[in-house]
Amino acid sequence: MKVLVIGSGGREHAIVDAIAESSKVTKIFAAPGNGGIAEHAELVSIQADDVPILTEFAKNQRIDLTFVGPELPLSKGLVDVFHKNRLPVVGPSAHQARLESSKSFAKQFFKSNNIPTGEFIECSTPGEAYGVIETTKWPVVIKADGLAAGKGVVIAEDADQARSTIQQFMESKTLGEAGSKVVIEEYLEGQEASFHVFADGTDYQPMVAAQDHKRRFDGDEGPNTGGMGAYSADTILSPEQHSAVFSRIIEPTLKAAKSYAGVLYAGLMLTSRGPKLLEYNARFGDPETQVVLSRLKTSLIDVLQDIVEHRLAARNLEWRRDPAATVVLVAAGYPGKVESGKQIFGLDEAKRIEGVKVYHAGTRREGGRIYTAGGRVLNVTARGATLAEALERAYFVAEMIEFDGKDYRKDIGKKGLAGER
Ligand SMILES: Nc1ncnc2c1ncn2[C@@H]1O[C@H](COP(=O)(O)OP(=O)(O)O)[C@@H](O)[C@H]1O
Ligand SMILES: [Mg+2]
């Protein structure tokens, strides 16, 4: 079977790696892929959101299954076009992906389906938004309506910060059209959790929970990033929280978002009044995928085929009990401007360490050597009998790999360790 994976991050490397394990799969293409993905897949230089060219490619190559990693091609209707061309694809339609691509659409959807979420007001003009912050409690959360690659949410501590955020998003248009509308949302307190499900349009299968580390520096300080690390362990959600997530959030969503197929990712805040939904993503999280898939025993390609053939209900997903952790190695300057092209050393040695996989994010392969090519460079992912062991392994390898300007957070999974004791 011939598979096409769309995307170029650590998430897509983990997906390609899991797909490559199956003997059914004879060929994997990745568009555009990265230096690590190149080990298992043939890289095709088509941008992840170039829907017409990707469609042509899948037709010409007679691809048996396409998996869409990032949100942009989903929001641009890649899945709709593939369906029209009878090309088997895993992912939601552009309309379904609005759960991610429009915060105001999503919040209205949560409200009309009684899904627990923070109180909010939608503002279409700067005037409305400035008006709302005159009477709000602090802090307050300001969210750009459209896709903003993780840069569209600000937790404003006071009126000055709120005003300047509204000015930037809505008047200076620093995020382009994504910021022309905003949602102003109640600030919720608690631990965050990421919860993914596979859905086939009728049925769904839950995945194991994970926790992301969004802030750049230890102790959750500094700016938000695409994700500095993650862990997955069965202790992230209590049994009560787990059942509340199913009955109050996931099930009403899939019932209302008729025929949603693909991966649905719920960003949760575990508040003292139960889990509340911060947002949905219409695809896998990055770096959560790296830890979640490393615990999946069932062959990923089998699950993806179940989705395409609408027979997920009969599937019994098997998971490893072992926790997993991933530490993201970043280039100096991230999440700001970074310098690329630094040679990476130690990757071959890392391959020999048991229980560890190094997924590539921003890398490039040239003449047998690997170079940095982005802010988030590598994701060192490890499993262990305990979370402590998984973290020990991941940090051992994080230390071992070298490139000029390498940095990483030293406290990934720390909150999870407290739960393990
Ligand atoms: N209502 C809220 N209360 C507290 N923190 C929030 C709230 N909404 C979002 N956040 C914080 O902001 C981050 C980004 O918000 P999210 O809605 O996930 O948007 P996106 O991932 O599209 O940037 C969340 O991971 C969370 O840390
Ligand atoms: Mg988010």
Structure description:
The protein is an alpha+beta fold. The protein has 14 helices and 22 strands. It has helices spanning 10-20, 51-60, 71-75, 78-84, 98-101, 103-112, 126-132, 159-171, 239-256, 288-294, 300-308, 347-351, 387-400, 414-420, and strands spanning 2-7, 27-32, 42-43, 65-68, 89-90, 120-123, 140-144, 153-156, 182-186, 191-200, 204-206, 211-212, 215-217, 221-224, 229-232, 261-271, 274-281, 324-330, 356-360, 363-366, 369-372, 376-383. The strands form six sheets. Strands 3-2-1-4-5 form a five-stranded parallel β-sheet. The protein has a five-stranded antiparallel β-sheet with strand order 12-15-18-22-19. β1 (2-7), α1 and β2 (27-32) form a beta-alpha-beta unit. The longest helix has 18 residues, at 239-256. The termini are far apart. The structure holds adenosine-5'-diphosphate (ADP) and magnesium ion. Adenosine-5'-diphosphate is lined by residues 118, 141, 150, 152-153, 155, 185-188, 192, 214, 267, 278-279.
Write the layout of secondary structure elements.
Elements (H helix, E strand, L loop, with lengths): L1 E6 L2 H11 L6 E6 L9 E2 L7 H10 L4 E4 L2 H5 L2 H7 L4 E2 L7 H4 L1 H10 L7 E4 L2 H7 L7 E5 L8 E4 L2 H13 L10 E5 L4 E10 L3 E3 L4 E2 L2 E3 L3 E4 L4 E4 L6 H18 L4 E11 L2 E8 L6 H7 L5 H9 L15 E7 L16 H5 L4 E5 L2 E4 L2 E4 L3 E8 L3 H14 L13 H7 L1
Parallel strand pairs: 1-2, 1-4, 2-3, 4-5
Antiparallel strand pairs: 6-9, 7-8, 7-9, 10-11, 10-16, 12-15, 13-14, 15-18, 16-17, 18-22, 19-22, 20-21
Helix pairs in contact: 1-10
Adenosine-5'-diphosphate binds next to strand 8, strand 9 and strand 17.
